[in-house]
Amino acid sequence: MAINFPKWLTVLVTILALLLLIPVTTLAAPFGFPTSSKGIHTPAASLVTTYPSFSDLDLTPLQRQRLQGVLQRRNKEIQAVLDISQRDELRHQVHSGYSFNQALISLDLQPEQQHLIKAIEQLTSLKLKALLVRYSVSSVSN
Fold this sequence. Notes:
Layout: H1 5-21, H2 24-31, H3 61-81, H4 84-95, H5 100-105, H6 111-141
């Protein structure tokens, strides 16, 4: 499995920068995101994050589109981590009615893949938090 090292190094550096610059506990509390500080070494079932329902939020179509774009980007990055047989199995599971997260959990992932997927999930969570905070601040100021 070939992994583009500079790309993942950039992702990990970005995660680190966001963790240092954004106080996670203040952002996580209003939106119900978990604030636990577990390490990356977790079982496959906890690889994926369950995100809040965006349908309950009062967002414009453009804001919803941006949030969906972040999740689609996450899915694309996760698929890049998987090998061809894993991608085929993931596609089959999703077409069989499983959610993307359920299908991902059912795959037999290598430890390196688990680490990368967990990093992608953490980065996605930070991006969503930043967008939601920005939207809540802009809706209050309008």
